[in-house]
Amino acid sequence: MSRLRLLSAAALLAVAANSHASSFIVTTDAVVNALKATSDATTDVVSSSFKDNKIVLAARDDAASFVATEGAIRGVKLESALDYIRNQAPQLNATDAQLAQAILTI
User: Fold this and answer.
1) Is the CB of residue 49 less than 8 Å from the CB of residue 90?
2) Is there a contact between 73 and 47 (Cβ–Cβ < 8 Å)?
3) Alpha carbons 84 and 92: distance in angstroms, whole number
4) Concatenated DSSP letters for the chain?
5) Dist. CA 48–CA 70, nearest whole Å
6) From CA 24, how far away is CA 103, in angstroms rounded?
7) 94 φψ region: left (φ > 0), alpha (ψ -120 to 50), beta (else)
8) Residue 83 pLDDT > 90
9) Which of 7, 10, 50, 99 could form a disulfide with 56 if both were Cys (CB 3.0 to 4.6 A apart)?
10) 7-11, 50-54, 72-76: which has the highest mean pLDDT?
11) Residues of 4-24 as b/e, b for ≥16 C-beta within 10 angstroms?
12) 57: CB partners within 8 A, 6+ apart
C-alpha cells in the first residue's frame, strides 16, 4: 500500500510541476508579446512620422550610445529629439529607451 501512495504522490508532483512550468511559459509569452507590440507600435509611429526630420536623424549616434549603455549616456542631441518627438506626438506613451530604439530603426 505504501508503494501505491508513493507512486501517486510522485505522479501528483510531476503533474503539478509541469502545470506551473507551462503557466509560467504562457505568462512570460504574454508579457513579451505585449511589450513587443508596444515597441513595434512606437517604432512604427516614430519611423514613419520622423524619418526625414533633421533633429531626429542627428540623434542616431546619441540614441545608439543610450541603448548600448542602458540609459547611462544621454547625449544632448538625443534629449532634443526626445523633447521634439514628445511635443509633436503627445499621445505617444513611450519610454526614453523605446524612443531611442525607434530612432535607431529610422
Assistant:
1) no
2) no
3) 12
4) -HHHHHHHHHHHHHHHHHHHHHHHHHHHHHHHHHHHHHHHHHHHHHHHHHTT-HHHHHTHHHHHHHHHTTTS---HHHHHHHHHHHHH-TT----HHHHHHHHHH-
5) 25
6) 33
7) beta
8) yes
9) 50
10) 72-76
11) eeeeeeeeeeeeeeeeeeeee
12) 51, 106
Q: Which of 97, 78, 103, 94 lies closest to 41 in space, CA to CA?
A: 94
The residue ranges of every structural domain in the chain are 2-105
The cell for 56 is 531626429
- For the record, the C-alpha cell of 31 comes out as 508579457
Model confidence over 40-67: pLDDT tens digits?
555 555 555 777 889 999 999 999 999 9
State the first-to-last Cα distance of the chain, in angstroms, to the nearest integer. Answer: 69
| Cα 34 from Cα 40, distance rounded (Å) | 10
What CA–CA distance (Å, rounded) separates 17 from 52?
Answer: 53
In the structure grid, which three cell numbers stand for residue 63, read together?
540614441
Q: Report the alpha-carbon distance of residue 86 to residue 73 in Å, rounded.
A: 20
